[in-house]
Each structure stands twice: as structure tokens, then as C-alpha cells.
Amino acid sequence: MFDPNKSTPKVDHEEKCSGEAKYVADIILNNTLFAKTVRSSIAKGKIVSFSIPELPNGYYVVDHRDVVKENYVKMVFTDWPVFTSERVNYIGEPIMLIVGPDKLVIDEIISQIKITYEEEEGVFDLVNSVAHKSFKKGDFEEASKRAVRTIKETFETGYQEQAYIEPQGMLAYLEEGGKVTLIGSMQCPYYIKNAVINTLGYPEDKVRVIQPAVGGAFGGKEEFPSTTACQLATAVVKIKQPIKMIFEREEDMLVTTKRHPSSITLEAKIDENNKVLGIKAEVGLDAGAYIGLSAVVLSRAMLAVTDAYTIDNLDVSGNVYVTNTVPTGAFRGFGSPQMIFAIEMFMTHLAKDLGVDPFAFRLNHLVKQGDLTSTSGFFRDPIIMKDMIKKAVAMSDYHKKIKEYSKPGVYKGIGMSWFLHGCGFTGDGESTHIKSRVRLVKDEQDIVYLYIAAVDMGQGAKTSLKRVVAMVLDVPNEQVVFDYPDTDFAPDSGPTVASRTMMIVGGLLARAAQKLKDSWQKGQYQEIIEQYKQPDYIEWDESKLQGDAYPSYSWGVNVVEVEVSPITYEVQLKGIWSVYDIGKAIDERMVIGQADGGITQGVAYGYLENMRHEKGKLRQKNLTDYIIPTSMDMPPMETVIMDNPFLYGPYGAKGVGELTFVGGAPAVALAIEDAIKRKVNRIPATPEYIMELINNE
Amino acid sequence: MNKIKFNLNGQDVSVELDPSLRLLDVLRDHFQLTGTKEGCGEGECGACSVLINGRVVNSCCFPLANANGKKILTIEGLAKTKRYQILKDAFHIEGGSQCGICTPGMIMAAESLLSMNPHPSDEEIRIGLSGNLCRCTGYNMIIKAVQKAAELGAGLW
Which long-range contacts (CB under 8 A, 24 or more apart) does A363-366 make? Predict the structure, then answer.
């Protein structure tokens, strides 16, 4: 029997170290043309006219007139044009591609293109709601009557850029018979395939999507690559030569989707025993110019409203607003980081306002097994948060430090966040929308092939999913083959998002492998297809947002220690400690790698990563002015993974990827708050904001 | 156009190309050495790190003209050495590589660091790798990997 906790060599380790792994930019096909996008330079207006210089031989313009069928990119909400035709709605909106053999000539052509606009006043505030959602738990009105205190605060969060080190890129070519094939940096091969089928009006077997090595994604390659795929598919049908489009960093930073800026107002009703009877929450997300999947992000933000606490009465509403800014979209955590930041700060602020110890106050509200979730579903599985908190407190010496740092004139601080993350798609998404299928094939040599659409974008899916199959079959890893997904062979096992890959796809693979094992016929070709089936216990009403929003939850505790310079207000991280309950670690080293990287991004979201726009124009456009952590910014990190197997996960595994992100920002913001002895209501807590808090009293 | 001559991964080469081209593009497009990656194109991320006369340099900010007469080592050249084997094994043992796009550059930077300082402290490793961005790992495991390489490869650097 294999031990799932044990780590195995990553299957792609050698090729990634030696540089032999092929990312899309590294793939060279004969006669490949290059494409670059001509984009809107204004935030809102009409295109009156444009003039294009005479094109040299072999150069092409591709725009909305070339779209074969639908000029929309199919995603959750289909409102993004492939190429805009008359109106532009944000700076950077694609108008046309210039395609040709020499990148310098393409740049020269683009510099001569003149577009005349009739400019209109853009909308940049959260005023145009395009999606509204709400749900209730208990009776907030009645709880209000019993309350003796009401405390209300607003929290704001900024943009965050995924900043994967490999920029977006896509390569399209025609196979014999006119099949459109796309190779690109992506998380969701079937999102791309379905979007391309939709824009071309082609049958399923005339579009193929192949994943090469992907250099980081973090949600940024969830829905956005569908837009470039639709553009290149349009171009390749017209030009009939391979076409490659690799974004430069500046273009990537200016036009790809980012984390939604948010404004969250929370109002608590508290009784005479300092118990929070109810919370009213209003969530606003800035979707940018198009809705895309923002309404789903809103759901996740709203559902996380009570985080790791049980509050009996809730009145939660939220809106997605469109503005004339770059569209926002998926990013690790998917709405939940904004809410977890707000509620963690709020719970601490409530305790401070009530004059009680925040640690004890939060502990009094901590969720227990059997409690109702925010949407009145059940926390069915054992919750071991108390043990985890105890561990984190001991590792970080939290109580001693918080006492010591409370002295005046000490600019050190420590903050602790408690959090959960729902694993997999929200509600019945897995069973009604995704309907994942996995395929296992055994050849006559008894080699087992995994055919799934799950993408390894660095998290190690290629290694860990293969391992699950090998463990179930009780065969050596080498007897199992898992190549990069290719939609001609792999069925739609769903997108590589929502912390679902191990729990859902890994779970399906484990079941398929068990069936194969039970029916194993040596030397014979065998094929097993397994389809997702929702656990019977899940009851979910999507229209009312009521019931079990997720099949299970992963849990975490983060502690961050900081020192703030009283002169420059710069924040220095001094230590990070984490404890996670992810059910069971499949390959502990890989899980800790996810944990280290997740909290690094999460903490940086809270204090470092700053992106703003001025009337729709982003002020940060490269890694020079959008600062992500370097090795010198990060302190040593210590992480403990608990063992609390989940009945329906493969070997007990639940979700990992996003969980490790969501607690970072509140932990660092609480640490900064502790250091400067002022309430933090906004992230990133930049030196400028800290100075404001200290000086504007 | 004048010929530009340099030593690339141990071989003397000469090219007749626009001397203002970025060394990165010459390596990738002309020599098909695609192990050197482009992450930002302005010297911030270090994915394009190569060694020029033994020192780590961002090849995206290095014009071809300046390569004349220099010794250039890319990941493909380093990959043939024993030191690389040690670095690769250490990155495996400590889990220092995830998506892999920064890894060749990180290994070049580690090679440069260890060749100047075979037994760096944790702090010295953090400084030595500070020109190489990684978005996946939070650096913890990379720092440990370089420590491990220094330990496993004692005497090689």
C-alpha cells in the first residue's frame, strides 16, 4: 500500500529545470505568422473611423467583419465581443489583429493606424448594477430588535494582478480537413474549445485544443484565454497559416482580467452578552467593462460572509457593477478573499469596540460541526479548527507577542486569520453545468493512460493525479501515463479551477481506477469512463442561494508577524505560520509548496500589491511598478498539514489551492493594525495608507 | 553587417545580425535555445537569466553587440555539468520548482551565487536570488534547495 502523504518526484521536474519543457512561446511551427492586437485607447466611446496604411504582402487585418458566426466569447455570461465593432468600453479593448511574418513590421503598421473616436464620459464608480443577488438566514429583523448595539463598517479591496511569470499566449493552426487547433497557456481546455465552437459555428470535431506546459495561471488563465483563442481562430480560418500571439508583459498587465476591486459594508447586531445576533452585508464588485463570470465571483464572496463563524441571522445582498475599466475575472479565491478580509477585520473591530479580547470573542463565534452554514446548509464533517488554532498559537507564540506588542511605541504586530474555503463549484454547479467525465484506457501492455482535461499549471496535477490512479491500481507510477490534455482524446473533466482538481477529478479517477482494478484483464485493452455524481446529501436551491453551497470545506489558520517602520511606514514581514485542514495531503511536499505560494500571494494582496486606475487607465503596467514579493520580502514560513480525511475525497483529500490564499490578507492587515494601533479597513495597506491612518487622527 | 563573435555554451560562434537585437531573442530565435524564458522584457523577473563571463545577467536587457568576445552560458550549457545535476536534484528534494517558467533562470542565478559564495547563508541566498521572481513557491523551498545544493555539491563550487 502506498502512503499518500509521501512525496514522489514531480514527473516534469527534469524538463522544467533544464528548460526543455515547451511552453507556448517555445513551440515553433513552419511558416508561423505573428499577431498583435490593435486596442482602444479610450475608455468609452464610438469608433467613428479608422485608417490603416497599405499593408505589405503577407500582412493581414483581422477584425469583427471576419468573425465566422458569433462575435461573442462564450463564457458564463456571454457579453464580451471577440472584436468590438462600433463601441469601445475600456482602454485596451481589442479592435483588430494585425497578422504577418515579421513582428517589427507589425509594430510599424500598428503605429500608423489611426482611429477616430467620438469620446463619451466613462463610468468609473459602482453605480451600474448588472447582477444582483441576495439571501437570508434566520430572521435578521427580529435579531435587530433583540440587539443592544449596532456596529457598521465598510471595507475596501483593490485590484490584484495574477502576475504569472509566463505571459498569456496562444498558437493556432489548421489541420488537414480544416480542423482549427489551438495550443496555448490555459487552465480550461474545454472553455476554449466551447468558445471557439461558438464563434466559428463549427461542429465539435472540427476544433481541437491542446495544453502545453503552463507557466503559472492563478485564475488569470481561466476565462481570458478564450478571448485570444476566438480571435486567433477567426484569423486562422481567414489566413490558413499558423498564427502565434504571445503577449508582452505590458499588454498582459493592461488588458487581462484581474481580481475584482470590492466594497463591502457589514452591519452587526449584538446583544448584551457580546454575542453577534445577526449581520447585514452588502457586497459590491467592480466587473470592469463586461460581466463575464463576475456574477459567480459575487456568489462566492457572499457565501463566505460568515467565514469560520456561526451567525444565526443574516441578510446578505450583492451587486456586480460594470464600469469603463479592464474586465476583472477569476483569481485564486474567486471573491472569497475580499469577503474573508472584510469579516476577519470586522470581527476583530467589533471586539475592540465592545472592549473585549478579540481572540476570545472570535472563539465564542467559531463554527462547530453540525452548525448551519451561511446558506443554511450543514457543516457535516468534523471541524478541527480549535486544535488548529491551538497549534498556530503555539508555533507563533501568538499570545506572548500580542501582549508585548501592545505597548506604546512598539511598531511590531502579529495578526491571525481563521478561514474556510468551499471546495469545488458552488451549489449544484458540478452536477448541472460541469458534468465531469474522466477516461482511463489500458493497452495490451497493461499501461494505463489518463485522459482528462485537468491542467498542470505548476500545482503538480500531472504528478498527483497520476499517483492517485497508480495508488488505487497498486501499480508503479511508471505504469501510468498522463500527458498534457488534448481535447481530441480527453473528455471534459471540467476546468482546472475552484480547488476542485484533486477532490472532484481525483475522486472520479480513483473511482474509475477501482473499476479498472476490479475488472482487470491482463494483456487486454480496456476502457473506463466515469461521470460525476453529486453526493446524495447535497441540497441546493440556486435561485434562493439556500442549502449546501459546497460538498465540503477546507479550513485554515494563518499567523503573520510584521514590523512597521515609524519613519517610512514600510511593512516588513517577520514570520508566517500556517495550519491547514485539507482532509488528506496527496503528496505533502507538493501541498506545502502550494501553501507557501498561496500565502505569499495572499499576504502581498494585503500589504504590497497595488494597482489603481485613473479614469480607466491603469497606473501600473509592468513588474517594475506593480510590485510582487521577491525572495527578500518573504520571511521563512512554517506550515502544518492536519489529517482529517473527507469521506468523499480520494484518500480523504479536499481542496488546497485557493484555501492557502484567502487568509493571507486579513492576517497581515491585522498584524499591521496591531503594530500601528489603528484600524485597517482597506487593502493593500500601503505605506501611504498607513501614514494616512497615523497622521489623520 | 559586422560579425559578432562570442562563446556560447563552450562553442565559438559568430553571427551576422542586427547588433541592437536583445541577446534573449538571438538565443531563442536564432539558436533555438528556448530554455531561456521571457517573463517581463525589462529586467525585473530574471526568467531570461544567463551567465556572461560567469555573472548572472538579464538577457532581455543585453544588446547582442555587447556579447562580442564574451563567454555566454545558458541553461542548455549548464545542463551538461555536474553542478547542474546537483542543483536539479536539490530543487527536486526541496520542491523548488512548480510551474517551471522561472526555474532555469533561478538555477542560473543559483549557479552564479554558488560560484562566488559556495556556502551562502539563508540571507545571502535571498539576496542572490532577489533578481529572480517566482509567483508559485513563495521562495521558501527555493532557498532550501540552494542550501541543499551547497551541501550536496560541497567542493564543486
Answer: A363/A389, A364/A274, A364/A275, A365/A275, A365/A276, A365/A309, A365/A310, A365/A311, A366/A308, A366/A309, A366/A310, A366/A418
